[in-house]
């Protein structure tokens, strides 16, 4: 494998060890083998990264949008050029099948390319003035230093969705990646360096001491924005901490996505969408289908077909060519799936397929289908984050919408129907930031990604993603009217 990083922090364009010499292990969830040992950063490294980002900010934001765009295009090209090595690295530290890892690299790179182009479109405006002697103009300027905290399930895409728009807008960044998957972030930093992105613009602080480093980022008055992807519980804590310095915030938090199948749906299309939405990344995605609501008339046929297709999934190490379901990321993840499943079965749910750890190893879980689920069960109310499809039967359209909306979360939702009127009615009635209609996968760099309710706020991707890193400045220009002198 081509090595794309050093096992250290990347601060101010240099690879640095933790001042206290601490390191931590990154292990392959497929077999618990050691992938690498890297610097376990603390307060000193966090402060150094903030200082580096602050020092780099004036010259970076002073560059033209075209200059920043050119560097981002180089970064994108290097990511694509190294897709094979990056995919192998991602699979080893996270566990997802190699094909999915390569797809994530391409998806993550698409944000770098998209925002390289959007950098040129941070337009201002002129506003008709109420005063004849004045003119009103607005401009959009970079927020400043950004702190980003990213999860383990998409260790490349979750970084580029934040870093690309931030850098395109003229901001600098300090990134704290997940302790489970820091290597992909370090590789991205090395490729950014090779692309010519200046020292201090993009800094990566790996750590197992997340609270310590996070507190330094949140407490610093030099950090003007926090962008976080993770659980709602953690997001609440970060928001409370960020309030002390009134930071701008973007929060992409937990989900509990409904997947509704109406009687008039195309059965095969619905099952295709269900497989893609539920089992991608072994169910470890924030937008994956978590609750299946299937109407009475199609319920039995849908369940039978879903079980048939789920049986065909191949569980194994992500590096194996035929694997379609890799391991879960760690022991806590497996134990959570087991606990939710056990409690729901005790309450009356029936396991139609799977339901236990797989013979491949401790972190592998069988692709599972559960029927007879009710709204009182943990599988209904909690985000499973595992390969478990939980199915509830419903009768009417109004019932389906009410059941789908009966959650504090509002990230993604999906439904299948052949009725155009229903497509509009249900799409507008669902209280979610993103809705897939007759589609099971909806993520793309050209559309706004984000949720409502306790799934957070702010958007990533699209032109709206650039806005998250820009402040609007209003300038009133007086003294414009020419004085007329007496003849």
Describe it:
Helices cover 39% and strands 21% of the residues. It has 487 residues and is α/β, with parallel strands linked by helices. The protein has two domains: 265 residues, 3-Layer(aba) Sandwich (Aldehyde Dehydrogenase, Chain A, domain 1); 181 residues, Aldehyde Dehydrogenase, Chain A, domain 2 (3-Layer(aba) Sandwich), CATH 3.40.309. The mean pLDDT is 96.
Largest sheet: 7 strands, mixed
The CATH topology name of the largest domain reads: Aldehyde Dehydrogenase, Chain A, domain 1
| Number of helical regions | 15
- Which spans have pLDDT < 50 for at least 5 consecutive residues? none
* Spatial order of the strands forming the largest sheet: 14-15-16-13-12-18-19
Mean pLDDT: 96
| CATH-level-2 architecture of the largest domain | 3-Layer(aba) Sandwich
Approximate strand percentage: 15-25%
Based on secondary structure, the structural category is alpha/beta
Number of domains in the coordinates? 2
Features:
single chain; 487 residues; Aldehyde Dehydrogenase, Chain A, domain 1; Aldehyde Dehydrogenase, Chain A, domain 2; 2 domains; seven-stranded mixed sheet; globular
Can I get a quick summary?
This protein is an alpha/beta fold.
Q: What secondary-structure arrangement, pairings included, does this model have?
A:
Blueprint: E1 9-11, E2 14-16, E3 23-27, E4 34-39, H1 43-62, H2 65-81, H3 83-94, H4 98-118, E5 125-127, E6 135-142, E7 145-149, H5 157-169, E8 172-176, H6 183-195, E9 202-204, H7 210-219, E10 223-229, H8 232-242, E11 248-252, E12 257-261, H9 267-279, E13 289-295, H10 296-311, H11 331-346, E14 350-353, E15 368-371, H12 378-381, E16 388-394, H13 397-405, E17 409-410, E18 412-416, H14 420-429, E19 434-437, E20 452-453, E21 456-457, H15 462-467, E22 470-477
Parallel strand pairs: 7-8, 7-10, 8-9, 10-11, 12-13, 12-18, 13-16, 15-16, 18-19
Antiparallel strand pairs: 1-2, 3-4, 5-6, 6-22, 11-21, 14-15, 17-20
Helix pairs in contact: 1-7, 2-4, 2-5, 2-6, 3-4, 4-5, 9-10
């Amino acid at each position: 494998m081509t090595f794309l990083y050093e096992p250290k922090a990347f601060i101010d364009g240099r690879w640095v060890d933790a001042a206290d010499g601490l390191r931590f292990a990154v292990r392959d969830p497929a077999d618990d083998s050691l992938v690498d040992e890297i610097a376990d950063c603390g307060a000193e490294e966090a402060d150094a990264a903030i200082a580096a980002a602050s020092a780099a900010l004036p010259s970076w934001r002073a560059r033209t949008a075209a200059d920043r765009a050119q560097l981002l295009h180089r970064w994108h090209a290097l990511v694509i050029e190294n897709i094979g090595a990056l995919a192998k690295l991602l699979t080893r530290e996270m566990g997802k099948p190699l094909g999915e890892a390569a797809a994530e690299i391409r998806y993550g790179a698409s944000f770098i390319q998209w925002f390289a182009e959007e950098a040129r479109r941070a337009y201002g405006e002129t506003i008709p003035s109420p005063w004849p002697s004045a003119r009103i103009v607005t401009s959009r300027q970079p927020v400043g230093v950004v702190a980003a905290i990213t999860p383990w399930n998409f260790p490349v895409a979750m970084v580029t969705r934040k870093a690309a728009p931030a850098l395109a807008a003229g901001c600098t960044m300090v990134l704290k990646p997940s302790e489970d998957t820091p290597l992909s972030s370090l590789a991205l930093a090395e490729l950014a360096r090779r692309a010519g992105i200046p020292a201090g613009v993009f800094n990566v602080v790996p750590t197992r001491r997340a609270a310590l480093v996070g507190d330094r980022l949140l407490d610093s008055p030099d950090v003007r924005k926090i962008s976080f992807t993770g659980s709602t519980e953690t997001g609440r804590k970060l928001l409370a901490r960020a309030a002390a310095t009134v930071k701008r915030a973007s929060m992409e938090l937990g989900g509990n996505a409904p997947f509704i199948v109406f009687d008039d749906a195309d059965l095969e299309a619905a099952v295709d969408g269900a497989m893609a939405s539920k089992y991608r990344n072994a169910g470890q995605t924030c937008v994956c289908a978590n609750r299946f609501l299937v109407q009475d008339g199609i319920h039995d046929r849908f369940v039978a077909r879903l079980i048939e297709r789920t049986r065909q999934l191949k569980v194994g190490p992500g590096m194996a060519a035929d694997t379609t379901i890799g391991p879960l990321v760690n022991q806590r993840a497996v134990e959570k799936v087991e606990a939710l499943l056990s409690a729901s079965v005790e309450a009356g749910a029936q396991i139609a397929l799977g339901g236990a750890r797989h013979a491949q190893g401790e972190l592998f879980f069988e692709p599972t289908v559960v029927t007879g689920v009710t709204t009182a069960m943990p599988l209904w109310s909690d985000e499973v984050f595992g390969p478990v499809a939980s199915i509830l039967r419903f009768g009417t359209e109004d019932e389906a919408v009410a059941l789908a909306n009966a959650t504090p979360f509002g990230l993604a939702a999906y439904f299948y129907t052949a009725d155009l009127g229903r497509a509009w009615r249900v799409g507008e009635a669902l209280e979610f930031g993103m809705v897939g209609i007759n589609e099971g996968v909806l993520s793309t760099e050209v559309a706004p990604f984000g949720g409502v309710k306790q799934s957070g706020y702010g958007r990533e991707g699209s032109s709206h993603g650039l806005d998250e890193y820009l402040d609007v400045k209003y300038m009133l220009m007086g003294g414009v009217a020419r004085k007329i002198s007496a003849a």
